[in-house]
Design a protein that fits this description.
The complex is a heterodimer of chains A (173) and B (372). The termini of chain A are far apart. The mean pLDDT of chain A is 82. By secondary structure, chain A is mainly α. Chain A contains seven helices and no strands. Chain B has 15 helices and two strands. With 372 residues, chain B is an all-alpha fold. In chain B, helix 2 crosses helix 3, helix 2 packs across helix 12 and helix 7 runs antiparallel to helix 10. In chain B, a hairpin with a 2-residue loop joins strand 1 and strand 2. A two-stranded antiparallel sheet of chain B has the order 1-2. The chains are: A mainly alpha (173), B mainly alpha (372).
Chain lengths: 173, 372
């Protein structure tokens, strides 16, 4: 494929990401916002592919589309009178908002312009990235990995405890 | 694995027999600078789904169900009713496309589309032959497991957009089921990936080739592999909403679940998506455990049965036959087993399949490390 095709595909995905993200923010219907998030997540995954981080791209789809988006949709759908709620999207606190916007924007632009020469890593990646991730997780980063798994286990037990059917509550019904 | 570079102007008809040769040639097929080859590459699985579900899927389902129940099934259109599905499609095409007044028009319309795209995307990484794979990703298997998530969103869009309580119930049940059964399914497939040491579908298949045919398949390479194989098969039934896990469309309680309100072509698209996913999970199970496009026939002495029945074209034949075999088993089970209740479904997933999947994961790890 020519370079032009790549550039074109990149811009298509970038446009999908940006426009669907804008739709999420500006839409007055919560359900539509939640569904538009699908395209945002998908576009971001495609951008990861362009950075040749295909493992992260698939993880993005699995975690965000398969997990978080479904959770969000369930939450939205099971909320009472979701369609009747007027979403408040007025503009408030104009001056602090503008200040924060200008601050973040200038910080980002500063970083972008001062580090415009990309710093390539010393080790060049050869072959599949998946094996590298596996080796690194199981050797260098085994402690953070175990800590994250303990954290997730604690969250799981907590969720199971909260969702548990309580017999003493049932008597009061 | 060395890919032979092909000249970029080479026509798809002059394709060689080396690994991924056909798909590489198609990618290089750019008449007048347009990436037409890529479009053809993506269209091949699409045409395949349409053809197979038209000719074998629906017809097979009706005939198999008929024979299971001691009936004849469709007999009127064509000999043995072979043309019945084509007649059905013509009828569906002519039907009025009804959108209920109180439905959410936008979600109602895009629901089946997203659903179909979700079931179709995984075909990108399925190796249909040694020379043909849509995209030979090094995370192929992970992609195939993960991309089902898009189907889930399509189901929710269809269920919510219909503005019908049966549809919404069906959608919620279906999504809860797919999300839960993804866990034992993914762990079971991980066992196969562990035996291969890669997530690349084409490499997993190549590791299972050899002159002893079926004896090289992962299923017969380790005594533990039967456990993840069975777990994945059961979980894949739930993932494609097939009986005994078809509670999302439980016709006795929910009319037809999330596609109650759909008519005409939109209904046909949902059906196509279901048959597409059925073949997808069947192909995945045959690639990971049953050698994908490798011939199961062994060489017997100088009678080189395996060598004769291997090759790019034979590969297409074997993987489709293996897929059809599992589709037949899915249909067989559908007309044999009664439907599970919701609580039984969750019990089976979390208290039976998931612990056994973990056990098989640990046992496979021990086997891979200690048994050469």
């Amino acid at each position: 494929m020519s370079n032009l095709t790549y550039t074109l595909i990149f811009y298509i995905f970038a446009a999908i990401t940006v426009f669907s993200a804008a739709f999420v923010v500006f839409s007055r219907n919560v359900i539509y916002s939640a569904f538009a998030l699908l395209f945002t997540f998908f576009g971001v995954a495609a951008l990861y592919v362009f950075l040749s981080a295909d493992f992260i791209a698939v993880t993005q789809v699995v975690v965000y589309v398969g997990g978080i988006l479904v959770l969000l949709l369930f939450g939205v759908m099971f909320t009472k009178s979701i369609m009747n709620t007027e979403l408040k999207s007025d503009v408030l606190h104009i001056i602090p908002g503008t200040l924060i916007l200008a601050g973040i924007l200038s910080a980002l632009l500063y970083t972008f312009y001062t580090t415009h020469t990309w710093k390539p890593s010393e080790i060049e990646l050869h072959g599949s990235i998946v094996e590298r991730i596996g080796y690194e997780t199981m050797s260098h980063y085994v402690l953070p990995f175990e800590m994250v798994s303990i954290l997730l286990l604690a969250a799981l037990i907590g969720a199971a405890f909260l969702a548990r059917f309580d017999k003493s509550d049932n008597k009061n019904l | 694995m060395i890919l032979t570079p092909l000249p970029h102007i080479s026509m798809p008809l002059l394709m060689g027999n080396s690994l991924n040769a056909w798909s590489e040639a198609l990618v290089g097929f750019n008449p007048m600078g347009l990436p037409l080859g890529l479009v053809i590459l993506a269209a091949i699985p699409l045409v395949f789904i349409a053809l197979y579900s038209l000719t074998y899927g629906v017809y097979g389902e009706r005939k198999i169900s008929a024979f299971m129940q001691d009936r004849l099934g469709p007999m009127e259109v064509g000999k043995w009713g072979i043309l019945q599905t084509i007649a059905d499609i013509l009828k569906l095409l002519q039907k009025e496309d009804i959108v209920p007044t109180s439905a959410d028009k936008f979600l109602f319309v895009i629901g089946p589309g997203v659903l179909f795209v979700g079931s179709f995307l995984a075909y990108a990484v399925l190796p249909f032959s040694s020379a043909f794979i849509g995209a030979s990703l090094n995370v192929g298997l992970f992609f195939a497991i993960g991309i089902v998530a898009i189907e889930v969103v399509g189901i929710l869009a269809a269920g919510w957009g219909s503005n019908n309580k049966w549809s919404l119930y069906g959608a919620v049940r279906s999504v809860a089921q797919i999300v839960s059964y993804e866990i034992p399914a993914a762990i079971a497939l991980l066992c196969g990936a562990m035996m291969a040491g890669t997530l690349d579908m084409q490499k997993i298949t190549m590791l299972q080739s050899g002159s002893y045919g079926f004896a090289h398949f992962f299923l017969f390479q380790s005594p533990i592999a039967w456990l993840p194989f069975l777990i994945y098969f059961i979980a894949s039934l739930a993932e494609v909403n097939r009986a005994p896990f078809d509670i999302p469309e439980a016709e006795s309680e929910l009319v037809a679940g999330y596609f109650t309100e759909y008519t005409g072509m939109k209904f046909a698209v949902i059906f196509l998506a279901e048959y597409g996913s059925m073949f997808m999970v069947s192909a995945i199970i045959s690639i990971v455990f049953l050698g994908g496009w490798n011939s199961p026939l062994p060489d017997i002495g100088s009678f080189a049965l395996n060598a004769w029945t291997n090759g790019p074209l034979w590969g297409v034949f074997w993987i489709i036959m293996k897929g059809f075999f599992f589709i037949f088993v899915q249909m067989w089970l559908r007309w044999t087993l009664p439907r599970l209740r919701v609580d039984q479904l969750m019990y089976l997933c979390w208290k039976v399949l998931t612990p056994f999947a973990f056990v098989s994961f640990v046992l496979t790890a021990i086997w891979v490390i200690y048994v050469p």
